[in-house]
Amino acid sequence: MEEITLLSKVFEILANNNKGSYVFLSDIKTGYSRWSKECVEEFGLPSDRIEDAGLIWAEHVHPSDRARYDQSLEDVFSGRTDSHDLVYRARNKYGEYVAVTCRGKVIRDDDNTPLFFAGTIINHGIASEYDNVTNLYTKEKLIETLADYKEDKQRYNILFIGIYNFIDINNVYGYEFGNKVIKNFAEKLLEYTDDAEVFSAGGTKFAVVSTELKLSQLKEIYEELADYGRYSITVDGTHVAIMLGASCTEVTNFAVDEHTVFSNGLRGLEESMYEKHGEINAFSNSLMDKSHERLVLLNALRNSILEDCDGFSLVFQPVIDAETESLKGAEALVRWKKDPYGNVSPADFIAWLEDDPLFYDLGLWIAENAMRFWKENVLTVRPDLNLSINLSYTQLERSNFRKDFANLIKELDFPADRLKVELTERCTILDKHFLRNEIIFMKSQGIDTIIDDFGTGFSAMELLLVLPVSGIKIDRSFVSGIAEDIRKQAVAEAIITCAQKMGLHITVEGVESGIIRDAVKSFGASSYQGYFYSVPVPIEDFVKLPFM
Ligand code: C2E
Ligand code: CA
Ligand code: CA
Hints:
Blueprint: H1 2-14, E1 21-27, E2 33-35, H2 37-43, E3 49-50, H3 53-58, H4 63-77, E4 83-91, E5 97-108, E6 114-126, H5 139-151, E7 156-163, H6 166-173, H7 175-192, E8 197-200, E9 205-210, H8 215-231, E10 233-235, E11 238-240, E12 244-251, H9 258-274, H10 285-306, E13 312-321, E14 327-338, E15 342-344, H11 346-353, H12 357-378, E16 386-392, H13 393-397, H14 401-412, E17 419-424, H15 432-444, E18 448-454, H16 460-466, E19 471-474, H17 486-501, E20 505-508, H18 514-521, E21 527-528, E22 537-538, H19 539-542
Parallel strand pairs: 14-16, 16-17, 17-18, 18-19, 19-20, 20-21
Antiparallel strand pairs: 1-2, 1-6, 2-3, 4-5, 5-6, 7-9, 7-12, 8-9, 10-11, 13-14, 13-21, 13-22, 14-15
Bound molecules: ligand C2E and calcium ion (2 copies).
């Protein structure tokens, strides 16, 4: 009892009221311990005086951190080291994991027998450093790390790896199983990559960053992982084969922004996954050269956005009513021109930029400028014309999107029923429930949504059953050369007939000639768009078009 009183006295001296910083002190012999009140409160501990605290606290440690935690404590108590200093995740009373830094020291008597274990726990808040599914560091942490390297002028190599058949796994086995597959792969990735840091790069993409490993070593690691993915993953007794793609960048140019390195790496990864079947030639010198050019260009694009979108402009391409062949509206498309790069097509840069946080700002700039011009110069003459703008999935994902978009419409006092949103579905993991809600939100604002590039994405027909869209735009790849290709005619006819039966509005894009128009005419599309009617024109010229 005497010792306990002494312990309590020492504790009172140590305990401080710093928010998020706690103190613990335990008597090793009796197992009796004291904890700051704030800590008891935050973690829902039974009391500020606990017997067997070691066991109780260990229960709060994240399962993935538990082995490290146990090892560190064993090292301290066995006398191998003197102090415990560890960052790990601990579960608070709400069941959320927060990151904590725990520092403790063993106090020994003259015979070296451990008497007390005392220390502090600093609470860093919700453990956003770690990705929920994989337990790897998050994308945000990756960007921070790259920024630090840039600042320190530290050379490094970065390998991006992605799983490209993941949508199939999700479809066949369900999300929960899919998550287990990702977790299994993430653990393997950690095993294979000593001398490197491993991050989640969002969804089914990963990044391996190393200042030690050479590109050739990263390439070998990738090859081994690709084999592992193909042959050796078993989840809940089921063997699944995952297909990987990769890109690799050597970073030695510190003028290049960390976001640029990131976007460039992802772009290279997508090329590997969707155009090269995961081929390792993503690592060839030629790609590295190409990748360097791309880095410079991406950096220039980003700087343009930061300079109030200087260098960006808009064009409108007319949309024609199929029945009357008269003007129905236009689609806004972005352009970028800057010395010494000249005109760069959005077909090239949108996909690179999409994952970049700055893309969101560009998207708002596009929407605002297109809508303002339409309201002030087009609707004043032709109040019946519709404006279509393109939105990417990544734009919708931003938490501010709804607020920003609704504000824009309100500020410009734009008639919502004259606005159409074209949604591109370039990404691999689409959360259908999320998309559905966003489309319902658009509807609540009075805005119709259509699916763009229909037929090129994933399970397009299936999407139509779930998403409350008002129409589809059939990608031009379906109609190019359609007059000579009987199979293309069959596919286009099938899609159009099906969409019609679902009551959807159908736009055919890429109508380059009267021949194409005639080939699709009988199928019953609602609108046409293409060079046959007009190329996209600078917005000021739109109002001068003959059919306006
Ligand atoms: P998209 O939305 O499918 O846009 C149609 C593309 O087809 C445009 O290319 C247009 O210039 C082109 N096009 C129009 N008629 C014809 C034709 O008869 N024949 C051929 N061969 N092409 C035709 P563009 O402007 O280069 O845009 C490429 C893609 O970049 C767009 O494809 C869209 O996915 C993306 N994009 C463009 N502007 C924006 C934007 O403001 N926001 C977003 N998120 N994406 C945009
Ligand atoms: Ca479009
Ligand atoms: Ca298209």
